[in-house]
Amino acid sequence: MVVGLTWNNARQTGGSAARAGLAGALAVAIGVAVLGIGLPGVAAADPAARTTEWLCNPDDPSDPCDLPSDTTDQLTGQTTGATARVPEHDKPVDCFYVYPTVSNQVALNADLVASPEVESIARFQVARFADTCRVFAPVYRQVPLLGLPAALAGLEGPIDLAYSDVLAAWNDYLAHDNHGRGVIFIGHSQGTMMLRKLIREQIDPHFQLREQMVGAFLMGGNVTTERGSTVGGDFTNIPLCTTQGESGCVTAYSTDLIGLPSLFGNSSYDLITARLGLPTGPGYQVACTDPAVLSGNPDPVGATVPSAPYSFGIISVLMDYTTFPEPLPTSTSTWTTGKGRGTGQCVDPDGFHRYRIQMTVPQAVNELPLFDTHLLDINFGLERLVDIANQQSAAWQMAHT
């Protein structure tokens, strides 16, 4: 669903009790969602009345995507200072970010408000890109965690409503803010699902918009291709990235440690993809692009997260479980890189195509059942993703000047 932090197998003292408590809490929550107990009905979409509620927008200098980049590394003890902030009008490209499932609401669709947990995830996942691009991130009426079982069971209205907000925000951005600028798409989990549909239907068929696509980071959301190909599946024309500095392509993968069956890596088990009308089934392969190759940095990397606490709620509980018995890393810097380090490679055990993390400097993690290390997808090696974005931006500018 969102970012997490530490990694290793969950066998620490006290881990069984923590897992049991969490499993019980989630079972109750899912039961409530499936049975529809206390869940408001789906609000009817009113395109004429809808206006975009921006979570992040370059006109707002204090939104959650505006963080300095100073960072403390817990392994080395070194602190790097913040880079000089580039004025918004001087940033060469834009980023369009759609956040993952984070809402704490007991509802089929979240309200159209920037709740504290939504602001927290923007800090975790996209604020690090703010030195590269102007960040546009719409609030959308996503399907909250407690509403997902109903959507997975076949209720299509909530997912359709969530996507309608993302599409409306994209059209708003194109009409008022883009002015022919290059765009980097960034999404995770439910956000990636929304962007897969948006890019498939609004970008991929249109030459001019494909030309404006600098790149896309579609993490933890089962992007599909034809087997053995960089295209097909979700996109006919837009390929997966394969080489360093390549622009106009997609970076996509889901992380794991030990290869457990999960909701990620095999499109045959992806119910949300089917609900969105996206390609799924055994004829398609879930994408895995190696960020070490695309960034040109094969060195072991860690997980980098904001030092400020994540807003309390379902996701913060899952984060605490992920890092148990240690807390999320923090420091006096705006960002903290944990002490663990790891490398990775794309693997395909039993048809689950994922990015397998191999730790070189260990740090504990508790993998979530059916979600593997989904909470690590963006923040493990976050700097590599930012490097890829910077290289794509430079390549795109060179090709379009």
Automatic annotation (TrEMBL):
Q: What is this protein called?
A: DUF3089 domain-containing protein
- UniProt cross-references to InterPro entries, sorted A to Z: AB_hydrolase_fold, DUF3089
Keyword Transmembrane helix listed? The answer is: yes
Q: Where is this region: Disordered?
A: 59-83
Q: Which UniProt keywords apply?
A: Membrane, Transmembrane, Transmembrane helix
Species annotation: Rhodococcus gannanensis
Transmembrane ranges, per UniProt, are 20-43
